[in-house]
User: Fold these one by one.
Assistant:
Number 1:
Amino acid sequence: MSNGDITVKPITAEDKDAWRPLFRGYAVFYKADINSGIEDEVWRWLTEPAHVLEGYLAWNAEGSAVGLIHIRECPRPLSGKMMGFLDDMFVDPRQRGAGVADALFEFMRQTAEDRGWPVFRWLTQHYNYRGRAFYDKYTGSSSDFIMYQWKF
């Protein structure tokens, strides 16, 4: 899918070197302590056709990967339908404001439409002010749900 100068395409086995710096940038932003073992495992998920996690890269007109999303389908029991879940989204900081996030969201909208998903859901940290302002542009505001995390 193309949106102006940005094209969003599924990740292929040849895209690891383009994906890796974006995934690392995402991890740094969220203060996640990842290592090459984690990267390799996520990459395996993304390139294994039967795995639920799907990866997509946004490419600019010069052929550089400038953004990523990781999405998956999951059940929404109260509607009796499947829905989309956005696990990860990251745009190269040097490309922010250039329409990359809009292209990724347009891709998500088209994916939801094509697959019959009534909604896409995602989480973000409270300190992601720029991301939250962008999300509000599409959704109006955050939902009224509060997420809890039980660690083991």
Number 2:
Amino acid sequence: MNDIRTIERRTVELSHGKTVVWEAGSGDPVVLLHGVRFWEGGDYWISTIQALSAQFHVYAPDLMGWGDGERLFVEYSFAYLVDFVRELQDALGLTSAHIVGHSMGGWVAALLAYESPERVRTLTLVANGGMSTSTPHMMKQVQVPTREELVQYARGIGQMRESEINEAVERWLARVERPDAVAAYTLIMRHMTHPIHRARYNLRRRLRYIKAPTLIVWGEFDLVNSVEFGKEMYQALPAAHMVVLPCGHDCVKEQPDAFHQALIPFLREYAKGDGP
């Protein structure tokens, strides 16, 4: 089971303000980028941080505009988020890192690998959102989830004790009920869901230029981003390996053991053993 107390929660000062980073372990640096849900943050990756931290130095930031850090009240999208990751690497003293991203986080990770290849040792794309120009239903309306909805989501994960569910739900509710949360998130979604921006930052034309060794992980029954997108990415990327798991969109949560069994050997293969 996951004990959040084994993970350090620290704050890092960036140009937009404070960002929260969940951190554990030592060794080659691994940066984990979460998805787009209103209540998400670096703590989405708790089980993965614990699975990796025996061998790697793991960082899971709250992306700018998510989680518990300070907000930026302008419309911004992919370019801002990619630069946020670069700035975070600079602040943490990381010249390069293994980058892992789920859904929207995978889209940001792939753009980083395209724009700044020297910063990406390996790339892991989990149910990546960057192949489709259409907007997933979950992003079309900004609604504050109720406690019951968050409990239902946490129970649906199937990997958490009741005490862990209650703790997580309280943490998520505190985020989404902040006075500034809806306004900031609405600005992000307004830009990110616009068809022009989704087409402008689509990964299709970029994939063949991404040289980092890449692991693609997808759920066979993903109803948010079809596994067919993953297969298309696999064909386009020069150095890719693909794993399909018997689950939906949340591979990290629905199949944590299988996900980690795919991820850890991949990272180990390309580990330099030299830290930052």
Number 3:
Amino acid sequence: MNEPTGPRGERRATTLETGDGRGNPRETTVSYRVAGPAGAPPVVLLHGIGLDAADVSWRHLLPALADERRVYAPDLPGHGESEKPRLSYTTDLFARALRAFLADRGLDAPALVGVSMGGGVALGHALDHDVERLVLVNSYGLGADAPWRPAAAAMLRTPLAHRGWWAGIGSSRATVREHLRTMTGGAPPEDLVTDVHEAVASAAVGRTVASWQRDEFRPGGLRTDYSGWLDALVPETLFVHGERDPLLPASWSERAAERTGASLELFGDCGHWTPREAPDRFERVVRGFLAE
């Protein structure tokens, strides 16, 4: 599955040993984009959960980095053009997929850029493995709970309600646009509406979201919270956050940056999807940080 090289690079696929989330072997075919000079320093871009895929969050950043970097942007299992088997999708499974992808591509210590759930995966990896530089964007994994978690957990107890919610989001461009309006700092860009509409078309992606949420949304809070481990964070790190983010508050990144002495960039006019809401500024900030 090779796609000719274009502005967003070449699309390729590889088969990884990811396990099935229950301790059993399981190979999963993962699709990814790659761009930039083969000998350039590598950077891996990790998208978020459900509404996202490599071509969604990284549509603008991937070609912007490809002048100086060898850029890899995988569709995580259950997303985009990657295989979507019936698995137990957890943050741990996505972490295993990242480790397997890095080993498969021979990437020992690349830079990592992760948004939302992908930020939590990148942060967990950086706490245990060598990473050149780390960019965490509106990142998950920096707080113990969120105000919307109890309602989301309650909906998961009624599978038909969750399936209806997911089908409703993707039923038309108009419903995608209205859902994105609740996540972004204003009217969502139309090209983002188009990309998300394509990303949520598969019911299998909805199963991925429900599986991950069932594992993450616990009675007392969110399962993945690295805020108590940040003293062990070694690589130079940049936190980026939209100040209007209604899902993961900007205060998470502010506290994390203060605790670690890391760089912090707050985008006052953005919500949860900073890479797509302010792509030009976001690209300048990330390129500058990776070039230091």
